[in-house]
Amino acid sequence: MNIYGYSLTDSEALQSLREVSILASREELLALAAFFAKCAFEIQMEKNWEHAHFGDFLGNPPELDRDIIVVAKRE
User: Fold this and answer.
1) What predicted TM-score, i.e. pTM, was given to this entire model?
2) Residue 58: in which H helix or E strand, if any?
3) Burial of 55 by CB count in 10 Å (0-12 exposed, 13-18 middle, 19+ buried)?
4) β-strand partners of 67
5) Which of 68, 7, 8, 72 is nearest to 35 (CA)?
């Protein structure tokens, strides 16, 4: 697994990250778990599945000013 991200101050340079910390409520963590499970299922079922956005999964609520993107790792 690789983890990448953008800085709040430099949104042009994609960076490889060593660690990610998530500060979230119970409800947000349950939503993340459901999103990850959905992605895993779709990767298994759809040969050409590429990626999904957590924001799209949630319906792009206006209070969500960050996003998590899952990308299929091809063997």
Assistant:
1) 0.86
2) helix 54-58
3) middle
4) none
5) 68
Backbone angles phi, psi at 63, to 5 degrees: -75, -10
Q: Could you give the CA distance from residue 4 to residue 14 in angstroms, rounded to a whole number?
A: 7
Q: What is the DSSP string of 35-55?
A: HHHHHHHHHHH-TT--EEEHH
Half-sphere exposure of 46 (CA within 13 A, CB side): 12
Query: CA 6, 7, 12, 16 torsion: positive or negative?
Result: negative
Q: What is the pLDDT of residues 2-46, one digit of tens each?
A: 899 988 887 788 999 999 999 999 999 999 999 999 999 999 999
For residue 62 the two structure tokens come to: 């206006």
What does residue 23 show for φ and ψ, rounded to 5 degrees?
A: -100, 110
Question: Hunting for tokens 């119970």 — which residue is that?
Answer: 26
